[in-house]
Amino acid sequence: MRPLPPVEDLGEGVWSVPVPIPGNPLGYTLVYLLESPRGPVLVDAGWNHEDSWRALTSGLASAGASVGDVYGVVLTHFHPDHAGLAARVREASGAWIAMHRADAELVRGFARLGADGQRARQLRYAAAAGAAPAELERLAESAPLFEPPAPPDRDLSDGEPVDVPGRSLRTVWTPGHTPGHVCLQLEDADRLFTGDHLLPRITPNIGLYGFDDAGDPLGAYLSSLAKLADIPEDTRVLPAHEHRFTGAARRAAEIAEHHEAKLDELARLLDGGGATLWELSARLPWKRGWDGMEVASRRMAAAETAAHARALERRGLAVRADGDDGLPRWHPAEAAAPQAPARP
């Protein structure tokens, strides 16, 4: 595991507290502490693990606080490396937990679904994406299941101020990585907390897992990136991973260009015969290579392909049609296959 950076006093009542993600190549989540007269407010909380808890509590001590002092935890999104310890912080301090309402709905939905429902849904989506029977068997045995975080006490909306006494922290809804991802603009100290939305070197996963849904996560993400176009060049960007930087608008434009290039590449791979998500994903370049991926990673890659295919559909460059085997296939718009008749 990569070494943790130090706890840092960033000035103006803002601290950076690295919290490890055991066994994950990302290494750590940067949790931020905002000082307030009512006690610290945390931006994200870190992974739910004893090593992570020790790092969080010792980091708070380095900032002159204790976990019992925490007034609130505002989450950039619901993923476990951001939300995992929020419930434990709340138990120790009575702090409130806040996240955007779109992610709050997902968290409550995951809780209702349970482990068996999650597994069944993963298998259903992978089968519809074109996974082979042997792959589905491996997925049934090894699919990682999501442990939903504690439901929030407060649901946030775009533009809503966050309850940080004596400070001005504003919610900026930036969907894409998750439906309810938010950035947080600290207006009294010229800082922008970007979670996973804007990172200095890597790009977050943008996936469409239920491609029968009406959503367009990549389209939402590109629109969210455009919302940052007016952020001043010298605004200090505090992401949840890697390192701090400036030039939010410039970095947002670079990420958008990356996705536009991937959309162009996917459009070139479409042919008149149509292809499943599994087939399209196998044709795309991946860092580890499709052949080297375990089936759970292939499912995530296919979800990313699905998000790009949906964006092509919305732009009128691709059409989805079910094949004779009932599997959805994507075609270039000018060569779309006829829709298979509905089965009785």
Automatic annotation (TrEMBL):
Biased composition (Basic and acidic residues): 321-332
Pfam families found in the cross-reference section: Lactamase_B
Domain of life of the organism encoding this protein: Bacteria
Sequence ranges assigned to domain Metallo-beta-lactamase in this UniProt record: 28-241
Composition-biased stretches (Low complexity): 333-344
PANTHER family referenced in this protein's UniProt entry, alphabetically: METALLO-BETA-LACTAMASE DOMAIN-CONTAINING (PTHR42951)
Protein name: MBL fold metallo-hydrolase
